[in-house]
Amino acid sequence: MWDTIVLGSGIAGLTAAAALAHRGQRVLVLEQHLTPGGQTQTFQRQGWTFATGVHYIGGVGPFPGPDGQFGRLLAWLSNDQLAFAPCGNPYDIVRLPGLEFGIEHPEAAYRQRLLERFPHQRIAIDRWFGQMAQARRAAMSLFAMRGMPAPLAWGLKLWRGAEVEAMSRRTLAEALAEVPDPQLRAILGARWGDYGAPPEHAPLLEHALVTGSYNAGAWFPVGGPSRFAQTLLSVVQGAGGAVELGASAERIVVEGGRVAGVDFSQHGQPHSVRAPRVISAIGAPNTAACLAESAAREWQAELLGFKPGLAYLSLYLGFEGDIEAAGASAANVWIYESLDIGSAWRQPADEDAPGLFVSFPSLKDPRSGDKPTAEVLALCEAAPFEGWLGRPAGGRPEDYLAFKAWVEARLLAQFERHFPALAPMIRFHELATPLTQQHYVRAPQGAMYGIVMDAGRLASGALNVRTPVKGLLLAGQDVSGAGVQASAMSGLMAAAALEPALLRQLMG
Question: Do 231 and 290 belong to one domain?
Fold first, then answer.
């Protein structure tokens, strides 16, 4: 009945399914949550609408060439039903003790502001931006190799492999160590939270790719992130496809060495569907867990051997009043309590978060209405929550609820110290913990960005779009890296592996 089954309705699964629908395929999307969208979904509390994982997107502006390519792809996928609003300029603000610095676009403006603020650091600044350009070239080669057929990937590796390997192994911390001024170092490294790996382990390649995606501006989906699922699933359904919610994949069925379908549970009942091709966008370890041990045993072992990345806490705030007049803006604010910007929150009950990311989605979306919101994120170790991770979501134990309430109060107080004019306007607050992330998107240990981002991950041959199991393809941030754009492109690469005619669309 189905041409292809897609597991997961995050942005990777959505783009894969919609692209195949444009080629006339009947696609079934299985989503374990009751709301589609993965990290692009929204939810409501007492009239406030909150975005879960989208804070800004690059590559969607009205520009020719690479700076607008992602936007053109989304317009094609959605039948021109998606629109994006600019997040202002500066789009990111870094707050350090005694210093606030706005990061502007284009990159030339960002570079000029750094030279004005640090006139004696010209050599270090020039070297930094040279490395960023080189690392972005290496990143594009790496992810192209992951989506190409083996012979083409081999050829590209011969041509660019040495540069890719060198940049994959060079960490952000190593590059920052060459910058003499500590404030400049902190500004250049501050945005590592965009991909969830502290400078000590973060590949410079990933830092350059993610931060560079905003060099032509940052944008937010008009109508909120839920518009991705609304528009792209409409395309899937229009081609004869369907989405099943509350459908948790239990087993990817393999017969004779190739995919034959998927067994899943829905509302407590077992179901089985048949299809000759499956695109899994539920994370690499989760994909391996759905396979019989005998299916590509060594490949599975490598996937299951990856450690999860950092977890996170997210405080959702609802306000009453004019938050813009009180100091909020469409720009994201990266706040650090010291110039040591490389630490995650290790003891959330006993100390303040070393760094906060603050976003005001209601000021980014022109259709948000009159209920202003904010999201306050802090990357953290999963260890303080380890005793509760993996338990069923219903009926959380009292000790967890007490711990969560204590952490919520601490995080709220920290936000109020940094935004004192906003504090009296808060009318609602709710904390999401690593348990929340694990429950809603099946993230191991509540990891924010899936498996850990380090050189070992980038060097792995197991994280390609094509897998050793015939008919099974991988998509999602474990394949391509963090962020909406990278994840969406992995879905498109998976679809193109099944329908090569889509490559023309990707290259346009």
Answer: yes
